Amino acid sequence: MRRRGMGALHVGEPTRVTTFQQPQPAIAAASNNNGHGPVVEEIHGLIRVYKDGHVDRPPAIPDVPCNWGSTAPGAPGGVVARDVVVDRSTGVWARLYAPMTSAGSPGGSRLPVVVYFHGGGFCVGSAAWSCYHGFLAQLASRACCAVMSVDYRLAPEHRLPAAFDDGLAAVRWLRHQATMATTRPDELSWWRSRCGFDRVFLMGDSAGANIAYHVAARLGQGGHLAVSPLVLRGVVLVQPFFGGEARTVSEKTMTQPPRSALTLPTSDCYWRLALPGGSSRDHPWCNPLLSRLETLTLPPLLVCVSEMDILRDRNMDLCRALRKAGKSVDEAVYGGVGHAFQVLHNYHLSQTRTQEMLARIKAFVSATR
Question: Which parts of the sequence belong to the Alpha/beta hydrolase fold-3 domain (predicted)?
Fold first, then answer.
């Protein structure tokens, strides 16, 4: 992990727009001169997997240090950020965010804590990517919350359930911070002092939403959602990345624009790389609809769906199935935008819909007590 110093993100600067060519999976049979043999899986511009297991990830999106600012114009105040090691044995780290002041929180009280998992098909992405850094700085400022953005291990080097295990490790780290709330000051006192550890939310987009869902399900296996002194109050799933052998209508018919972040072949490639070897897309980590949802203990959920996303129907099917199983599910559909619009700004309405999403998340977090 590359350690970066704490810095203030000065809100009011223009949001950086990040775009890249539509990823396309490809199979290359020819040998390469790099000594790793032929390429067996590739999503152009994002990941290349060789026969000997070597993996290349081109720098599709730049990393940024903590003192780099990219937040929404007109947002109040500033945001402080810092990188920390979560688990030295695995190399998992996280980027912490908090508003410089508690303005906007009821009575200036401690802020809810959002544990966030980035997207990328379990195979690419980073908590240091500029697009996530900017989005989560906005989330901290506009939704008045503290954020822990987890940089979990990636497939295919670390296939599932490694990402779920790292999510649980992040929760354990957060629980440890909560137990230190009254101890002597240290380098993280600035962040802990802003955190209301009795109001914790799990959140993620795409594959990160899948991680948030499964971590919440694991935390609820004991029949309760308190990881004392933490209390899990809710889960926010943004365009959750799930799949299945049977195709939905949106997967079969949705035509994606050139700058779309997810196509059906790309989705299939991610699942081949992320699931345990030999698994089909009906594995329960991919297709939760084949599980007994009524047996899960889950807090209230907010599911954010994009109208032009190939995952649209699968996301809405999950909402219906969870409600039928007796779960509390709030559903928000964003028109005119597709997958990952809130971080890639790859649609005409991305900025407008992103602000609508942030407002909806703030309302969900504020109402869930």
Answer: 114-342
Stated as kind and residue range, the H or E segment containing 269 is: helix 264-274
Tokens of 311: 């995952």
155 DSSP 8-state letter: T
The per-type count for the chain, helices as H runs and strands as E runs, is 9, 14
Residues 58, 129: Cα–Cα separation, whole Å: 13
In this structure, what DSSP letter does residue 140 have?
A: H
**Residues designated as active site:** 206, 309, 339
Please report, for residues 136, 238, 243, 295, the alpha-carbon distance to residue 325 in angstroms, rounded to integers and kept in the order given.
32, 20, 19, 8
- Strand, helix or coil at 193? coil
User: Which of 201, 208, 14, 11 lies closest to 99 in space, CA to CA?
Assistant: 11
Tell me the per-residue pLDDT of 281-305, one tens digit each, with 9 for 90 and over: 999 999 999 999 999 999 999 999 9
For residue 180, the model assigns a pLDDT of 85
CA distance 299 to 368: 10
Say what the pTM is: 0.90
Q: What backbone phi and psi angles, to 5 degrees, belong to 358?
A: -60, -40
Domain extent listing, the chain: 64-368
Closest CA to 112 of 142, 143, 146: 146
From CA 201, how far away is CA 269, in angstroms rounded?
30
Q: What is the distance between the alpha carbons of residues 265 and 255, in angstroms, rounded to a whole number?
A: 12
Which stretch of DSSP H or E encloses residue 215? helix 207-219
pLDDT, tens digit (0-9, with 9 covering 90-100), for 58-75: 999 999 988 644 343 334
All residue ranges of the chain with pLDDT < 70 are 1-33, 67-77, 102-108, 181-184, 223-225, 369
Q: How far, in Å, CA of 20 to CA of 6, rounded?
A: 29
CATH topology of domain 64-368: Rossmann fold (3.40.50)
Residue ranges of alpha helices (H) inside 64-161 are: 130-142
Q: Strand locations in the chain, DSSP E?
A: 7-10, 25-26, 39-43, 47-50, 55-56, 78-87, 92-99, 111-117, 146-151, 195-205, 226-227, 230-238, 301-306, 329-334
For the chain, what's the residue count?
369
